[in-house]
Amino acid sequence: MNRNGLLRLLFLSFLLLSGCWNRTELNELGITAATGFDKEGKEWVMSYQVIVPSVMAIGQGGAGSGGKSKPNVHVFTNKGASIREAADMSYMENARRLYFAHTDVLVLGIDAAKEGIDEVLDLYFRNNDARETVLVTITDGKASDILKKLIPAESLPGTALSEMIRKESAFSSRLPSIKVYQLAQRITSDSAAAGVPEIKFTGNIKGEMESLDDEKRTSAPGKLVLNRLGVFRGDRFIGWLNRRESFGVSWLTDQVKGSTIAFSSDSKSGKPNSIRITQAKTKVTPEKAGNRFKMRIEVKLSGALLEAGTNQDLMKPENIYKLEQDLAKEVTDIMNIGWKASKRIGVDLPGFADKIHRKYPKDWKKMKETWTEDFKKVELDVQVKAKILRPGLLKKAFRTNQEGSSKSGK
């Protein structure tokens, strides 16, 4: 092939190559860190916490006029007959295309949660620009109000909120985190139940904070906190569980990753002991008991003793064993509290229905229509094996050593 023929061939091949005709430049995107869902009548009210690139480029809390720092995010709200229509209304006041791939958390307003969140879940599973791994929270108010609050010392409130949820789930486990796909799985399971952590604003400020260092305060007058567990039956919110009740459900559902538990002993001191749980495993096995079912709950946990309230010598195995028994009783009580709360609110939060269905499919077929009442008759057989691996350096509580020194000094 001569040179001219080769050039013609190269030219024709270039025509077949696809170009970037539908590209979107970075400076045209509005990267969304958090999204809020509210309902007002029949309309959806959507709120977006969008990152402000110009402030982020300056640094955390870029300085504006007057020396005050500016928030790294901008929050705006739109209404629409559907969720997507409300999102499209954002272009009435926003010059950037909303980009949801970096959304860390979504907040459900209480009115939207009570009416039903099936449309929210449908949106996340139907569209490829929404991630189903986003963390879910609920608020006993408007989601838009939560998104307008800044979290001091953090540059991106939405990202900081998601980190709060993850850290609580990993180190406390009283309000375990839940993602969009997990929420969808649980409310469509045989139990048809799910728990969502509540985010609440506490403090004296009714409006949003305008800067991270307003008036150079060393502590913010208001803050966002994780408060309770919102309970869903199907796609609708039906009530709340407090932290201790939620902690019991976490044990029953094998969601305790790490936690610190204070428990009492029979020592005369009356002081509590504290243990840091480093490993925990819960196994739930359904067993038939006549026409009813009994759930055998087997828990194995281990951890390190952080505080000793007992006066006993902790170098003696029998005293450690007694503390382990006291700890096992405390965990058993916590699980029973969680189970009683589930029965009170009328929702199978521990997910016993799914386990019965797998082991006794024929029995489940007969009872699934009446499970909302039958599950309250289920009895628990709880067996907890606790192990204290590290009692610490002191043989006895420091208070006991100090009292011994005082007596010897006399």
From TrEMBL:
InterPro entries: GerAC_N (IPR057336), Spore_GerAC-like (IPR008844), Spore_GerAC-like_C (IPR046953), Spore_GerAC_C_sf (IPR038501). GO terms for cellular component: membrane. Pfam families: Spore_GerAC, Spore_GerAC_N. Residues 229-392 form the Spore germination GerAC-like C-terminal domain. It is found in: Membrane. It is a lipid-anchor. It comes from the Bacteria. Residues 23-199 form the Spore germination protein N-terminal domain. Keywords: Germination, Lipoprotein, Membrane, Palmitate, Signal. One of its GO terms (biological process) is spore germination. Gene3D superfamilies: Nutrient germinant receptor protein C, domain 3. Belongs to the GerABKC lipoprotein family. This is Ger(X)C family spore germination protein. It comes from Brevibacillus panacihumi. The lineage of its organism: Bacteria, Bacillati, Bacillota, Bacilli, Bacillales.
